[in-house]
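Researcher: Re-running this chain for the archive, since the previous output was lost when a drive failed. Same request as before.
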Amino acid sequence: MEKIKVNDIELAYTRRGKGTPLVLLHGYPLDHHLWEEVAPLLEDTFDLILPDLRGFGESTTVGSPYTMDDYASDVAGLLDQLGIQKAAIAGHSMGGYVALAFARLYPERISGLGLVSSQVLADPPDRKDGRYKSAAEVSEKGIGGVVETMAPKFTSDERLQAFARDAMKRQQPAAFIGALKAMAERMDSTPLLPSFKFPVVIIHGKADALIPIDRAREVKNAVPQAHLVELESAGHIPMLEAKEETARALKNLA
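Model: Regenerated structure tokens:
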């Protein structure tokens, strides 16, 4: 992986393909390897940029609290150093929250938005409390409990559960804690939706146990021109469960 210095962290990324710049942002608590199976299906259409968000994979983090805006600023700094003024941004789950923050902060720099197994709403109070409790658990006991709880929620496919489990185990506790707190404090992005004049792609599995399909349909209703793909048997990781359909949908961002 290549690495750059930005916002007091070292951000790791890979780059492959040619065409329209497309940044693929992984979800919590994973890293850029999440996109490895779908990337070969996209590299003939896109200049793919796959970062590890701060704290995850090979990227470093800071000890102080940070927000979705900070993650988005990291992405903007990466694009600056790559000499890319404008790019499509697609994010999975938490990566979608980062993509939405990027769209709010840098509207002139986004050429298209992809939301994969994500949503625009902020956490309700009980979910917010749950994230802080999970962060405290990781701080006190390590990541094991969160890993075992989350793996079956990603997908019903046992092989892919094993992939998710292994990917989560590679991450540092600080990344879990920082991301959980950042997600808990994220804002509702619903007011942003009417301003989206660029292509929007929404990809969501009907069997998603973490973010219900209704969240995707709500975005489609608010952005009528958006391209919504509902995947009949996919759960929370469609780029692994239905990679061809996911790639086909993302090509609408070219």
